[in-house]
Amino acid sequence: MLSSSSFPSDGVLSAYGWDEACEHAFAAHHSDGLTPGRVARVDRGHATVITADGWVRATWSTATEPPCTGDWAAVRPGERPELAALLPRRTAITRSSASRTSRAQVLAANVDTVAVVVSLAASASAGRIERMLALAWESGAVPVIVLAKADQAERPVDAVRDEVAALAPGVEVLAVSSVSGDGMDVLTAVLTGTIVLLGPSGAGKSTLGNALLGADLLATGDVRAGDGKGRHTTVHRELVRLPGGGVLIDTPGLRSVGVHDSEGGIQQVFAEIEDLAADCRFSDCAHESEPGCAVLAAIADGTLTRRRLDSYRKLLRESAWAASREDARLRAERENQRKDITRHLRATYKFRDRQS
């Protein structure tokens, strides 16, 4: 899909999101003979990058941080283009690695709007929605919940919208049908800048992306009748231009949505609990059995559900665990570096002693 034939002749980088902030961040690289570009896709150790001179296929050295879709980069041109450096990321959608190691996985960079896609053709998982919203808020982007497949809704759309809205304080919730076009005009107006589609396989991300693009450019597939889950028809994160302005990043379906050091995003998702906690008698209230707990009082009078509090606690524990693992890994790396330096110094001293 990314070919030189689709490359516009002017205003190239601005069409992909280049602005004054990018220009300022790139200033240090002008004197090195480098050119700016945006990473549209990463696979097999190569990055497909859009530059002012067209599409290039670039590699990067082990000393450079691995790029991800949406990154702005300083590209060294030539027969074998290379990503010499990545510009600082304004935003980044990050989750715990699917391998459950301490390392985080960056899903997309420099995103302005995160469309959390939920299928109305299947039962929505409240916990999954909360997790994806935590990732979106923590990234620094603006989340929007898209209830897709409204033409296949199993339940009244308004009822589902109200239930989902209760999980997402301050987030716009829109119901759309990519088939009939219902709601697409409102959605198009809401999605701005660099947009990423997040959701499980079968939620309708690629079909929604094609509707936004006005062409069948993204691979789609059927879902299983038994559980409503889909196959991973999208296998790479890929950035493409939208006809009305802005760019779109389609992502593979997320089987696991692990939060990684996302306390701020979690607090945003559960803003009503944070507000209630401010009225607890004790500033360190754990919301378990303390007298004067405003959170437990809200559960008692039905304004807050126990499930919501349990989910809040679970995500905070998971986030804290991931952060502690990351700290432990960094400490181990620093200790290994110290040991390497010590071994090198000892070897140097022994060599000098033999020479004297």
Automatic annotation (TrEMBL):
Positions contributing to GTP binding: A148, K149, A150, D151, G199, P200, S201, G202, A203, G204, K205, S206, T207
Chain residues that bind Zn(2+): C280, C285, H287, C293
Domain CP-type G: residue ranges: 101-257
One GO cellular component, as annotated: cytoplasm
Molecular-function annotations in GO: GTP binding; GTPase activity; metal ion binding; rRNA binding
Cofactor note: Binds 1 zinc ion per subunit.
EC code(s) of this entry: 3.6.1.-
Keywords, in A-Z order: Cytoplasm, GTP-binding, Hydrolase, Metal-binding, Nucleotide-binding, Ribosome biogenesis, RNA-binding, rRNA-binding, Zinc
Principal subcellular localization: cytoplasm
Regions that span the bilayer: none
Database matches in Gene3D superfamilies: P-loop containing nucleotide triphosphate hydrolases, Probable gtpase engc, domain 3
Its job: One of several proteins that assist in the late maturation steps of the functional core of the 30S ribosomal subunit. Helps release RbfA from mature subunits. May play a role in the assembly of ribosomal proteins into the subunit. Circularly permuted GTPase that catalyzes slow GTP hydrolysis, GTPase activity is stimulated by the 30S ribosomal subunit.
Family (UniProt): Belongs to the TRAFAC class YlqF/YawG GTPase family. RsgA subfamily.
Stored HAMAP family: GTPase_RsgA (MF_01820)
Name listed for the protein in its UniProt record: Small ribosomal subunit biogenesis GTPase RsgA
Name of the coding gene: rsgA
